[in-house]
Amino acid sequence: MSDIKHGPVVPTPGALGVLRPLPADAVRLTPGGLLGGWQARTVAATLPHCVASLEARGNLDNLRRVNGDTDAGFRGYWFADTDVHKTLEAAFWSGARPAFAAEAAALLEKAQDADGYLNSYYQDPERRDRQWTELHFSHEMYTAGHLIQAAVAAARSAPGDAVAQQVVSVARRFADLLVQRYGDSPQTDGHPEVETALAELYRVTGHRPYLDLAARLLDNRGHGTLGEGRFGAAYFQDHLPLRATTEVTGHVVRQLYLLAGAVDVAVETRDEALLATVEQLWDSALDSRTYLTGGQGSRHRDEAYGDAYELPPDRAYAETCAAIASFQLAWRLLLATGRAGYADEMERVLHNAIAAGTAVDGTAFFYSTPLQRRTGHDSGDENAPGHRLDWYDCACCPPNLARLMASLHTYAATGDDGGLQLHLYGAGEFSSGGRRVEVATRYPWDEQITVTVTGTTADPWRLSLRVPAWCTDVRLTVNGTPAPARAQGGYLRLHRIWHPGDEVVLTLAMPARLVAAHPRVDAVRGAAALVRGPIVYCLEHADMPADGTLFEDWELDATAPVAVAHHGSGLAPVTLRVRVRARTAQDRPLYRDLRTGGSTAATATVSAIPYFLWANREPGPMRVWIPLAAPED
Fold it and tell me: HSE-up of 221 (CA within 13 Å, CB side)?
């Protein structure tokens, strides 16, 4: 194992790929920036909150129960151990909460069976005979996958540390059991995730059977071995072999984790056909099944994709874990192909659907991230509340957010022998092979990104800066002199001999934009959304006139200009000022003749806030897609 600290995804030198991730200690995000602020908040608030919740909700007691250290009953879902594993992963990536890491490692080691099995639900004496007998349901391999990913974080963030090695040993024993049981088996798990974990464990250890098992599990899926279940074989992505599939389907998180594992296997085995299949499936999701915020999943019943263009804003499920999975998949595809579109999607989903998952104080979370909440919304269902909750019975999202944000710096840039590539813009320091730059920016609130060379080699090298697809006005200066800003494949590529103190200023113009959906998205036809840069905006009840007008009766006046307002304090650094008008509707019947009645009442100018900041004030209605005001037909 290497002594260099690395992040969650590190393809081997012989793997297919265009870009190489930077070592984890080669990037530092400044806490004063947006990305660095999210990371600092995770360490200061989210991670301690997760640790406390694991204790309060019984996740740690479930392991103590296996060890005979408590007689408390099992609490939580049958995959509750994964919340421990994900929190442990976050602790290793952040280098914080060492006492928790040590306690969790000791609990896991003590609870593990002699053959390597570790799952506190199925280690209950009354359920031991069910181990490995209900793979469509049990999440046993899924749970093992999150344990393995915690071990990957341990190995890469704390090489040589005794607690880290303890976790790695526990995970390897379980992985070895999986290889022994399923290395020649036609079976697979109902919830993909272990595939990407096994591939990464192979990358850490060099032990080929882990990668071979990941590849086998991918090929085992699609032959109906999991049965129909409640929602049909497509729910498990078990209706067709992966290589024969042309559209995403079923449970969104399962689909995206499956594709992440497929990319890992494809690049390590140099299987270009499998990689092309994943890209086709990605396109099917982005082209017609992804919300403006980057969220995916329009059906609550099975947490699944809907039909093409089935994207209702108020019924959006858009699970936070699905947004995280989309981000992780896009990163793998970016490394494999170098295509800027994958970085664009990482930026969109990170700044909208993922960011919305956490409250500003870092201790409350959304499970689903809808694009509209109606007046009087019933918040009784914890998976669709009108406000963030501090924890969930199925608490997959909070620790998933913690582990992503703890490792966020490792997704921002890549480097190779030819230079340094910046993909996500945030204030910080980045280095690669003797080349170092400092980035100063208030992006995405400000248009300007300043990159200063602080260290360099004598030979010329290339600094690559991503130009987002949404930006149509790009300006560039080098040492104060205007330079051509011609992007190639989504990047400005500046090749020259660099000197310490050289300064590049990239300006990405961010006018406020009105966005319309494809006309086949029936649910938002006749409505528009507000976007500035990568940030999607929304109207929220707290910013509307207190004149008694129902929130849903306000319409957007698209003929009025949208003003950008900067704020030195308050909830949002930048808001958009728009003109709205109210249509009287309180006396109308539910249905009426189109040409009968209706008159426009009050007009007002109101502020739209970044979508990811909604529900940080008092609970109430919100909408991203705003009906356009029009004369009554």
Answer: 31
Burial class (CB in 10 A: 0-12, 13-18, 19+), 484: exposed
* Amino acid of residue 199: A
Catalytic positions: 303, 396
CA atoms within 13 A of residue 492's CA, in its CB half-sphere = 21
Bridge pairing between strands 461-466 and 419-422: parallel
Query: How many Å apart are CA 182 and CA 160, to the nearest integer?
Result: 31
Q: How far is CA 24 from CA 157, 220, 411, in A?
A: 8, 34, 9
Taking Cα atoms as reference points, which of 191, 265, 199 lies closest to residue 221?
Answer: 191
- What is the Cα–Cα distance from 364 to 349, expressed in whole angstroms? 19
Q: Is 495 helix (H, G, I), strand (E, B) or coil?
A: strand
Q: What is the pLDDT of residues 107-155, one digit of tens each?
A: 999 999 999 999 999 999 999 999 999 999 999 999 999 999 999 999 9
Q: Which two tokens stand for residue 215?
A: 């590849």
At which residue do the structure tokens 């976050």 appear? 90
**493, 424, 500, 330: which is closest to 22 by C-alpha?**
424
Does the predicted model carry a pTM greater than 0.85?
yes
As a whole number of angstroms, the distance between CA 260 and CA 279 comes to 11
**What tokens does 121 get?**
């639900």
